[in-house]
From TrEMBL:
It is found in: Cell membrane; Membrane. It is a single-pass membrane protein. The gene is pbpB. The keyword Transmembrane applies. This is Penicillin-binding protein 2B. The chain crosses the membrane at residues 12-32.
Length: 701
């Protein structure tokens, strides 16, 4: 090749060499600038970058009944999310324009149709700001995204960096109101709840810490077993710069699903109890009291403490409490504006005077102290209480009845008030604290330890309790009255012009203080010291007595199983949904064995059987069930004090067990404003027994 042919290639070579040289010079210059000239600046910037560990939500575990019927699960729901990291890293558009554009797309589907695009834009930004503590995970903008909007987002994905429609697990309760209060519901943890959840023993043992933004169980099993149901959240590492702006993210540990929680309840029996309770309340509304809207019922295994069914009315559908809720829904479940709050589990948190269902406690205390015997007969008239003073403090027989001579068996069967007033006063006179002691042994007025949140304690009154509870109030009032008198007369005496005036004022002061002391002694006598009417009232389950239906069921179970007081429980076991392995098994636990002798327990059990036979107040309930054997006690519990408006209102209460030989289950139920327990809660017990044992009525029912 000659010089003329070589010349074009030479020019190209030198041109390319020049370009390469320029590139290397530029790279070298930038390398020098970054590492040397501005090295310290970028070094400090890099030092400011940190790795944040972010939780990845997992799929919450299922809740099933004893036969594995699904009661709570997690189902996919399409939600519109905004990933702040992806949005900020976008180089194609301004993030504010993206949010504005998104607001325009979703306006036709926004929950508030009257809201403008500008306002929706603001709502989205406020939502992001409210979740600034979790800015490294996508923020949910809208739930239940319709298919039309899903298609729009997909079509305009290039214009909406960081915006996506994702399928996330949402809590679902396929049986709706069935066992609603037992199950509870799931929502975001509140700031004031974090410490409480972090005290959970299982969570502490596993080293798990709750934090803001977590979804947690808010009530029922969802709350008490939240640690097991929530599963193990995944871990994502997010790198952020020194201005807290996210730079990158990486999943280092995928989430693990929650465990399956199996309950002790039988869903079919639960439905029977709930349906029967609904029917009874509806009948009371029509025939007796339109205000009857509430009630509760419990069926418990007497030999283990397992809760087989537990209903509370008004009913609760946990599905109503998922996501955003309206003011109307909030009022229905929490505020008791137009109707009783439906979220309250009245079976464990409702406190009711037990009425005559308490009389077995009085009977056992009297027999144990030997202040009576089963055969002693007492005339069912007011004069049996004693002199006229005692009679004035007592209560006439219910319904204006006169049952003649009654012993223990007839007294329980007929629910004689006079009989129990007489023997009850004997017990209180012999040992003022004994009835309270016995009641506590049977689980009344104490926390049962049931594995559900929100249990009420209740109250067993006694002379010591009345004094401790009431006297401080009157002591404080007395001291304040005396102090006010002293203050008033100190000023007057100081300004008195002569001795005679001072003496007169001093005498007036002393007289007023004496009147205060007289008032104080009257209050102590009436409201602090134990009186005969306290003995009468509390012996028949009125007065200050207050218990939950669960406590009443547990107490009856303890009578008929031979005196073993079991701790009631609602969760049978927890299993791994993948392997099926049992990771936690709850076992029956005896809290205590009662001090009442076996012979006394058997006597009271026989008396309860008499209630369901012959002249017993519950005999009509089981007369068409030839297979029935067992016992019961009816109750008509006065809601308020005598001579008040509520004093004419009564709750219907009923407790029972079956069968008589080798009892299996116990029942307790209450219908607010239900009056006679046999006519109301008794029918719920009947339905429960028929379902559990498969009994059929001779009348075709």
């Amino acid at each position: 090749m000659d010089d003329k042919e070589r010349k074009p290639y030479t020019h190209r070579f030198w041109g390319l060499s020049t370009v390469v040289l320029l590139v290397f010079l530029i790279l070298g210059f930038n390398l020098w600038r970054l590492q040397i000239a501005e090295g310290s600046y970028y070094s400090e910037m890099a030092k400011g970058n940190v790795m944040q560990v972010v939780k990845i939500p997992t799929t919450r575990g299922d809740i099933v009944d004893k036969n594995n019927k699904l009661l709570a699960t997690s189902v996919p729901e399409f939600v519109l999310t905004l990933d702040w990291l992806d949005l900020q890293q976008s180089k194609t558009t301004n993030w504010k324009d993206v949010v504005k554009r998104l607001a325009g797309f979703i306006k036709p589907y926004w929950p508030n149709p009257n809201e403008s695009v500008d306002n929706i834009d603001v709502d989205i930004l406020v939502n992001v700001q409210n979740h600034q503590w979790e800015r490294y995970r996508p923020v949910t903008i809208m739930q239940n995204v319709p298919q039309e909007l899903q298609a729009i987002v997909a079509e305009h994905q290039d214009e909406l960096p960081g915006v996506s429609v994702d399928a996330i697990p949402i809590r679902s309760y396929p049986q709706h109101t069935l066992a609603g209060q037992i199950l509870g519901y799931v929502r975001e943890i509140g700031p004031n709840e974090i410490d409480q959840f972090n005290q959970n023993p299982d969570a502490k043992k596993a080293g798990f810490t709750y934090s803001q933004g977590d979804l947690v169980g808010k009530d029922g099993v969802e709350k008490s077993y939240d640690f097991w149901l929530r599963g193990k959240e995944g871990v994502q590492q997010v790198e952020v710069d020194n201005n807290a702006r996210p730079l990158s993210k990486k999943v280092v540990q995928p989430p693990e699903p929650g465990k399956t929680v199996q309950l002790t309840i039988d869903a079919d029996l639960q439905k029977t109890v709930e349906d029967s309770l609904d029917q009874v309340i509806a009948n009371v509304q029509k025939t007796t009291n339109p205000n009857a809207k509430s009630g509760a019922a419990v069926v418990i295994d007497v030999n283990t403490g397992k809760i087989l069914a537990m209903a509370s009315r008004p009913s609760m559908d946990p599905n109503d409490l998922i996501g955003n809720i309206s003011q109307a829904v909030s009022d229905k479940y929490f505020t008791n504006k137009d109707a009783p709050a439906a979220s309250l589990d009245r079976a464990i948190a409702g406190l009711y005077p037990p009425g005559s269902t308490f009389k077995m406690i009085t009977a056992m205390a009297a027999l144990q102290l030997k202040v009576t015997n089963p055969q002693e007969q007492i005339s069912d008239v007011l004069s049996s209480l004693g002199n006229i003073v005692a009679q004035r403090q007592g209560f006439v027989e219910w319904g204006g009845n006169n049952f003649g001579l009654v012993n223990l068996y007839r007294a329980i069967a007929l629910s004689s008030d006079i009989y129990f007033e007489v023997i009850g006063r004997r017990v209180f006179d012999a040992n003022p604290e004994f009835i309270g002691q016995i009641a506590h042994e049977f689980g009344l007025g104490t926390y049962s330890g049931v594995d559900l949140p929100g249990e009420a304690k209740g109250l067993v009154p006694s002379a010591a309790w009345k004094k401790a509870n009431n006297q401080p109030k009157y002591d404080k009032e007395r001291d304040q009255k005396l102090a006010d008198i002293s203050s008033k007369y100190d000023a007057k005496i100081a300004q008195a012009k002569d001795t005679q005036t001072k003496q007169k004022l001093q005498a007036q002061e002393d007289q007023e203080k004496k009147q205060v002391q007289v008032w104080y002694q009257q209050m102590i006598s009436q409201n602090v010291n134990w009186q005969a009417y306290d003995s009468y009232n509390n012996a028949i389950g009125q007065g200050y007595n207050d218990y939950t239906p669960l406590q009443l069921a547990d107490y009856v179970a303890t009578i008929v199983n031979g005196g073993k007081h079991y701790q009631p429980y609602i969760v049978n076991k927890i299993t791994d949904p993948i392997t099926g392995k049992v990771v936690k098994q709850n076992e029956p636990k005896v809290i205590n064995t009662v001090s009442i002798s076996p012979s006394v327990l058997n006597t009271v059990k026989q008396a309860m059987q008499a209630t369901t036979r012959g002249e017993g107040t519950a005999s009509f309930l089981f007369s068409d069930l030839p297979e029935f054997s067992g016992g019961a006690k009816t109750g008509t519990a006065q809601i308020g004090s005598k001579d008040t408006i509520s004093g004419e209102l009564y709750n219907g209460e009923f407790v029972a067990f079956a069968p008589y030989d080798h009892p299996q289950i116990a029942f307790a139920g209450v219908v607010e404003y239900g009056s006679h327990g046999g006519d109301t809660a008794g029918y719920v017990a009947r339905a429960a027994f028929m379902k559990y044992f498969g009994w059929k009525s001779t009348n075709g029912g």
